[in-house]
Structures are given as C-alpha cells and as structure tokens.
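Troubleshooting log. The previous run stalled partway through. Resubmitting the same four chains, unchanged.
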Amino acid sequence: MKHSAMYSQIREKTYTIIFQTNTKAGRLFDLILLGFVLISVLLVMMETVADFNLKYHSYLITLEWIITVFFTIEYLLRIFSIDKPIRYVFSFYGIIDLLAILPMFASLFFTGYNILTVVRALRLLRLFKILNNPQFTSQSLKLKRALIASRGKIVVFIYFVLISTIIIGSIMYLIEGKESGFTSIPMSIYWTIVTLTTVGYGDISPQTPLGQFIASFVMILGYGIIAVPTGIVTAEINKYNKSRETQHQNPCGNCEADIYPSNAKFCPNCGHPIENN
Amino acid sequence: MKHSAMYSQIREKTYTIIFQTNTKAGRLFDLILLGFVLISVLLVMMETVADFNLKYHSYLITLEWIITVFFTIEYLLRIFSIDKPIRYVFSFYGIIDLLAILPMFASLFFTGYNILTVVRALRLLRLFKILNNPQFTSQSLKLKRALIASRGKIVVFIYFVLISTIIIGSIMYLIEGKESGFTSIPMSIYWTIVTLTTVGYGDISPQTPLGQFIASFVMILGYGIIAVPTGIVTAEINKYNKSRETQHQNPCGNCEADIYPSNAKFCPNCGHPIENN
Amino acid sequence: MKHSAMYSQIREKTYTIIFQTNTKAGRLFDLILLGFVLISVLLVMMETVADFNLKYHSYLITLEWIITVFFTIEYLLRIFSIDKPIRYVFSFYGIIDLLAILPMFASLFFTGYNILTVVRALRLLRLFKILNNPQFTSQSLKLKRALIASRGKIVVFIYFVLISTIIIGSIMYLIEGKESGFTSIPMSIYWTIVTLTTVGYGDISPQTPLGQFIASFVMILGYGIIAVPTGIVTAEINKYNKSRETQHQNPCGNCEADIYPSNAKFCPNCGHPIENN
Amino acid sequence: MKHSAMYSQIREKTYTIIFQTNTKAGRLFDLILLGFVLISVLLVMMETVADFNLKYHSYLITLEWIITVFFTIEYLLRIFSIDKPIRYVFSFYGIIDLLAILPMFASLFFTGYNILTVVRALRLLRLFKILNNPQFTSQSLKLKRALIASRGKIVVFIYFVLISTIIIGSIMYLIEGKESGFTSIPMSIYWTIVTLTTVGYGDISPQTPLGQFIASFVMILGYGIIAVPTGIVTAEINKYNKSRETQHQNPCGNCEADIYPSNAKFCPNCGHPIENN
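Second attempt completed without errors. Output:
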C-alpha cells in the first residue's frame, strides 16, 4: 500500500495527539477525554436513579448519544493512526474502548436494557489509563512492588482467615440455630466475615449468651489480626525505602564503598569525591 | 499619621497580649480566649438540642451576647494593634474571627435562623490556632511532613479505591436490584463505600446469596487494603525518624553539615575528616 | 512500741507471703487471690443477669460473703504486716482493696442497691497488679514507653479529629435535619464519631443524597486517617527496638565503638574481645 | 514380621504417593485429595441450606457416600503404608482424617443429625496440611515467628483490653439501664467489645446523652488502640527483615558466622578479620 506524504503526515499527527502525552495537544486531548469519560460514567449512574431519570430522560439520552459519537470517532481515529490496528483492537484497552460504544448502538435493537446500562459503566476502566501518567507511574510502581513482594505472606494469611471463617461459621450455626438468622452454614460464614472484618451490619447478630461470647472472641480476633497484613505491607515498603536510599548507587571510585546518603558529594568512608549519575 | 508616645505604647502592649504567646499576659489571654471559644461552641451545640433550648433559651441567648461582645472587642483590638490591619482582615483567621461575631448581629435583622446558628459554629476553627503553639508545632510539623511525603502514593491509592467502588457498586446494583435497597448505582456505590471502609451501617445489606458472596469479597478486600495507607504513612514516619537520628551528631568542622551516617569518617558534603565524639 | 521476736517473725512471714512474689508461698497466695478476684468479678456480673439471679440468688449471696470475708482478712493482714500502713491505706491499690469489701458491708444498711453492685466490680482493678509480675513488666514497659514517646503526636492527632467531628457534625445537622435522626448538633457529632471510627451502628444514617455523599467522604477519611496513629506507634516501637539492639551496650574497651550486635563476643570494628555485662 | 518383596514394594510406592509431595504421582494425589476435601466441605455447607437440601437431597447423600468411601480407602491406605500406624492414628491429622469418615457411618445408626453434620465440617482442617507445602512453609514460618516474638506484648495488650471492657461495660450498665438493651453487665461488656473493635452491629446502642458521650470515647479509644497490635507486629516483621538482610553476606573465613553488621571489619563472633567482597 502506498500513502501520499500528506496522508502519512496527518496520520502521524493524529497518533501524537491521541496516543502520546508529552505534547501540548496530546495533554489537551487526554484532558478532554477524561472529562467525557467522567461525564459518561455519571450519565450511567444518574440513569439508574428513578426520579432523576423520569424528569430528565430525554436530556440523558441526548448527552449519551453525543458522547457515544465522540467515542466512536475517537475509536476509529485510534485504529486509523496506529501501526498495528489489530493488536490494539484485541488489547485490554482496545476492548474497553469498544465496550464503551457498543451498548448504545445495541440499545437500538435490543430492549434487554439493564445489563447494557451497566456494560456502559465499564467505560470507567478507561480511567485506569491515567495511572500510566508519568506523575503517578513511579508511585503506583512502588505500591505494586511492595504488594507483589508481600504476595506470599498475604496468600497464607487469607488462606488462614478463610478456613477460620468456615470453622467459626459452622460452630455458630450449631449454637445459634435458625431463630437468630443463622439459617445455614453459608449464612453463618457470611456473618463471620461481616464480624471478623469489623464491618458489622447487624442484619444477623447472635442472640444466645454462648453465641455472643464466641462473637466477642471473633471480634477481638478480627481486631487483632488486621495487624498482620498491615505489618506485612509496611515492612515491605520500609525495606524498599531503605534499600533505595542507601545502596543502589554507583560505588565510590576510590574505596568502592556503596552505602552512602543519596545526596553525598564525598564518600563518607574515604573522602573521595563522588561522581553523580 | 502621627501618634503620641503613649498611644503607640498601648498599641504595642495590646499587640503583645493578643498576638504573642511568650509573655505571661499573652498566655493568660490565650487561655481565656480558648475558654470563651469552647463555651461559645458548646452554646451553639446546646441550642440545637430541643429540650435543652426550650428550658434555658434566655440563658443561652444572654451568654451568647456576652461572648459576642467579648469577641467583638477582641476583633477591634486586633485591628487596632496590628501593623497591617487590611492583611489581617482578609487572612484566614481574620475571616474566621469576623464570622464568629457577624451571625449574632445578623440574627437581629433576619429570622433565617438555622444557617446562622451553624455559621457561628465556625468559631471552633479558631481552635486550630492552638496548633501554632510551639509545644505542638514540632509534632504537627512532623505529621504534616510525613503526610505530604506520602501524598503521591495516597492519591494513587484513593483513585484506585474510588474506581473499585464504582465497579463493585454497578455489579451489586445488577445482582441485588431494587428489592434489597440497591435502588440505583449511586446508592450501590454508597453501600460499597460503607462496606469497604468496614463502617457497615446495615441500612442496606445484600439479600441474595450471590450478593452476599460478593459482599464477603468486598469486606475482605476492605479489611486487607487498609494495610496500604497504613504502610505508606508508617514508612514515611520511619524514614523521617531515621534521617533525624543520624542528625544528632557533632557537625562537620569544615562545612557544619550535621547529617551523615553514624559510621562516616569523612563529611559526605565537603570531604573534611570527621572527629569522633 | 516493742514487739516480741515471735510477733515480729510472723509479721515478716506474712509480709513475704502477701506482698512478695519471689517465694513459693508468695506465688501460691497470688494465684489464690487472682482466682478469688476473678470469681468475685464473675459474681457481680451474674447478679445483674435477671434470670440467673432469680434462680441462684441465695448461692450468689453466700459466695459473695465468703469472698468478702476472705478479702477482709487479707486487707487486715496487709495493714498488720506492712511497715507504713497509713501509706498503704491511701495508696491506689489500698483504696481499691478497701472498695472491694466495703459495698458488701454497706449493703447491710442501705438498699440503694445498683451502685453498690457496680462499686464491687472495681475489684477487678486489682487484676492490674498482675502486670507488676516480672514476666510482663518488661513487655508492658516497652509498650508504655512507645506510647509516652508518641504522646505529643497522638494529642495533636486527636485534637484534629475532635475539631473535624464538630465541623462535620454541624454540616450534617444542616443537611440532614431532624427527619433522619440528626436531631441536634451533639447527636450529629455522635453520628460523625460512629462513622469516622468505622463503628457504624446504623441507628442514625443519612437519608438525603447529599448527606450520603458527605458520609462517604467521612468514611474514606476515617478509613484513611487510622493510618496516622498506627504509623506513629509503629515508628516509635521500631525506633526503640533499633536503639535497644544496637547502642545501649558498654563500649569496646579498645576502640570505644558502641554499636555492635547484642550477642557479639568481639568488637566488629577492631576485633578486641568484649566483656559481657 | 516378614513381607514379600512385592508387598514391601507396593507399600513403599503407596507411602510415596500418599505422604510425599516431591513426586509427580504424589503431587497429583494431593491435588485430587484437595479437590475432594473442598467438595465435601461444600456438601456439608449446602446440606444446611434448607431450599437446596430439599431439592437435591438424594444427590447430596450420594456424593457424600462417594467421598466417604474414597476417604475411607485413603485412611486405610495411610495406616497400611506408614511405618508406625499407631502413632499416625493418634496424631492430630490422624484424628482429623478419622473424623472425616466416622459421622457418615454413624448417621446409619443415629438420627441426632445436626451435630454429625458439623463434625463432618472438621474435614476442612485437612486443608491446613497445604500450609506444609514448601512453597508456603517459609512464608508462614516468617509470620509465625513474628507472632511468637510479639506474643508477650500482645498478651499484655489483650489483658489490658479485657479489663477495660469489663470496667466500661459496668459503667454503661449503670448509665443506660435496661431500657436501652443494656440488660446486664455481661450484655454491656458484649456491647463494649462490639464497639471497641469497631464492629458496631447496632442491635444495642446507647440512648441517653451521657451514654452516647461515653460511647464516643470508647469508639475513639478503640480506633486509636488498634495502632498498638499493628505497631507490635510490624516492628517484629521489620526486625526480622533487618536481621535477615545483614545475613546475605560472605561468611567469616574462620568461624563461618554470617550474621554481622554490614560495616564490620572483624567477625563479632570470633574476632577474625573479614574480607570485603
């Protein structure tokens, strides 16, 4: 396929605006897109509020179509300007972008309304793109690293918590019985999770003295073991902070010491000047 | 403008008493003011308790006027004694001080009562001034610094939590429907926040088995991710503590830098040898 | 006053048994006393359970009198055996010990029953004595030290939280009004504390959309700022752990280095043997 | 006792499959067993859901018998293949394995149904075996070590919390009285635990202004002291992480000790000079 120079230039320009964030036009486009996504998510929400929808239904539908058209143009421009359109279409964000426009067109043919409404809400997944913003990337990377490093301990912890909830749930089912709302073991387990995590709805609560005694024990347990995931994550972040500050630098050119403050100009071990990297 | 010496002296004295905290009279004034602010806030509160207000309305009004007059005199003295009165009047505390007296005078002319009552409650913002007290300043500075340093990570965290609540809220709306109180997506999101933060009012709670299953998942998620902000802030405070600790050493004899590792033999700032103490 | 040798010997023996914990008889006495205190606290509790009290009232009273007599003898023996009885009588534990026996004798003369019952519950304050046990002392000292060291930061934090609750409470009172249970500002503040601390009874909960929006904000705030006290205490314990491990030792006899592992036998700086203390 | 070579070989093979996890067949057996345990626990749960049980009772019973037969064969094979069968039978997991099959056989003779159902739920204790998996062992060991190291502090903390709940419970009983649901001191203590751990069911909540004031205090206390166990566990994990980090160095050339400060020049264990890497 052969392209004229002008066509190629427009395509390149479009790519820069839509996909990149380091030009003025690119940033402006991102900001407008962010606004449209937020408005469209808000539209989906408000449509489910009966009173509001009744009053302003026609406005909501109109706005919805404006946004859908905008998103459709944007989607087509993305396919047009990118080098490997197929790869984009089947990527995570490609599918999300498509799901943002399909439900509205589908609503022309189907009346199975409710699910279409919520599929449209998936648009907000596009908001995750913002985390790719360089301003946030380093922060979210640190968090992600700390969470990944503590993955093993957290899996063991959740495994232990889940088995505990099943055991406690079974015991409470035996003690409380159906009168207090503990109608089945799954229901009892649901209660145990509600209590252990200190949520405490109060839709089910123990009525017998023994049940309340065990419930007290579960609460204190739940109150105490929150310390475990917190301790795990904190220690990971701590470790990361420490290692970043003290060692990952170029060693001293004279004595090869590699542990010094990040802002050191001279090696604290031999006094040799340190070259900045 | 020319002032007599005596006028200037009174003005200076007034300034010392009202604005400064390092003289005996200044501290006494601060203490009395604190007492008046506390009493006036208490008055505003008690006025809204129907039974109490009915019984003691005249006492409350009388006390209120006494305090308003005191605050008015104080406000005028502040304007009188300070060098740049305009700057004070439009400063944060200047506006707060004015709002502390205006509503009472306004109540003479207007009967739109309720809002005026609460505007008076803004007086308690004056209590924040206490945090300027040198005793607290260093402590609140440390906290502020730790919070500012972890700002980036916390923004990413809250952003992630908010998007999660919208997604979970939309799913719960689909599953539970209007019978269980999940009347709209905003209502569902409200429920998700109530659950994720482990508050758990119980005014809305899932009724279907699938809804309760997802709710259990949300609770365990909420119970677990509290670890993240805690870990972030703890690590910041830790880091600050650590860097401060390496500071309590004898400063470098050459450049007076006093932050270096405890085992440093040469100043990392200027390369000068460090004498051990 | 002159005492016979035998009298003095009995007195000394009694003192050892009652006040000290390092002899076999002393430990046994402490254990029996602990048992009696626990039983007596249990008695007070069970007496308030209507059904139980109705059935076993006479047993409860009999047991109560046995324990009161035992406590009375113990109290008299304490006064008899200690060197400065007056000081003991007016000490914290002296008063607690007296309050443990007075209500029962008072109940012979007065029928103002309820308060006497609960005064007896103060006996359990005697349980705090166990924390003087050398096994626990070091642990509770560490905790106490960490809490005292973080006192300043915690005061600032609670001060900030209290002012926030008053402000948020006033705003919610304005928004929600009396229909939703926000009947007065103090009631609104109570709701704010219930929500901010993630307790969430659900006896009062916002009904208006705006109220629920602000409530969501309060919940996320409460969920987030729990990180602050946790971070403060953790950092203190951390600091204490670190300083205890590395520095509070006798310095090396040769090079005076005082930072080495607690189990070091040779100075890691100059290789000189370290004398254990 | 003399065994034929083939018998001995089968026995050995069986042992490898059932008890070991480092062969392909052993891992497969473990996976199948895990599946069966999960299904059987699910069966027990679903049997207690009235609607579900009514519809599918015969299927549930059939599946239950299939699993019971499988578990019985497995149990017999374990006894057959292990060297010291008596020791296995009376070990923790031996008893659990027996309890997994007994109730079903017992249900043939007895109709005291409910308890048998739940005894069967004990099967899920077999899931704890997974934690013996080498993948998890190191992680759960670390957690266990941190929890054991902080045991002393946690005991003191819980002791303190329990005494506090009794005192606060007694006071609330006096203030609120029977009208608000605070029917007895144990009930009041139950409420205190529900509040202090920030669970907050709302089945009992204070109605008097004074009661609500004290409740607010309890909530802020509960909100604050969660910092203590969290701080304890975090500091322990931190300490462990730290000590482990100073370990990843080259061991001492003389005594092979590998735990010393990173800047050590001489081994703190034997005084031998350390070569830097």
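Takeaways: DSSP finds twelve helices and no strands in chain B. The interface with chain D takes residues 198-202, 230, 234, 263 of chain B (CB under 8 Å).
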